[in-house]
Design goal:
4 helices, mainly alpha, single chain, about 130 residues
Length: about 130
C-alpha cells in the first residue's frame, strides 16, 4: 500500500501541472525514491524470495513510475484507475523478471517450508459446531 502511495505521489510531482506540493526535484530523485520503495516492497512482499524481490522491486517501481508519468504528461484530466493501469503496464516486465528469478532460485535454494504456512490448513478442530438432534 505504501508503495502505491509513493508511486502516485512521485508520478504527480514529477509531471508539470500535476504537482501537489511543488517540490521541484529533478526526475532522478523521484526515480531514486520509488526505486528504494520498490526494493523495500520487494524485500517484504514474498517471504523466502528476498533476492528476487530486491532485484525486481526497484525495476518495478521505476517502470511503473515512468509509465504513470508518461500517461499524466499526455492528459489534462485523469482518473486514478487509469493511472494505476498505466503503472501496472509499466511494471509488467519486472513482474515477469521476479517470477523468472523466483524459478531460478527454486532450482538452487528453495525456501524453507515453514515460510508458507497456511493458517487455514491447521489440523486442530477449532470450535467445531455440534449438530443438534
Amino acid at each position: 500500500m505504501v508503495f502505491v502511495l509513493v508511486l502516485l505521489f512521485a508520478a504527480s510531482e514529477m509531471v508539470p501541472g500535476w504537482e501537489i506540493f511543488g517540490l521541484g526535484w529533478p526526475p532522478f530523485a523521484y526515480y531514486a525514491v520509488i526505486g528504494l520503495a520498490g526494493a523495500f516492497a520487494g524485500l517484504l512482499a514474498m517471504p523466502g524470495y528476498a533476492v528476487p524481490g530486491v532485484i525486481a522491486g526497484p525495476l518495478c517501481g521505476i517502470g511503473a513510475l515512468a509509465a504513470a508519468a508518461w500517461y499524466l504528461s499526455k492528459v489534462t484530466e485523469a482518473h486514478g484507475l487509469a493511472v494505476m493501469i498505466a503503472a501496472f503496464i509499466g511494471a509488467l516486465p519486472s513482474i515477469f523478471l521476479f517470477f523468472t528469478l523466483k524459478l531460478i532460485q527454486d532450482q538452487f535454494v528453495p525456501p524453507p517450508p515453514e515460510v508458507f504456512v497456511d493458517p487455514l490448513a491447521d489440523d486442530r478442530n477449532l470450535g467445531e459446531i455440534e449438530e443438534e438432534d
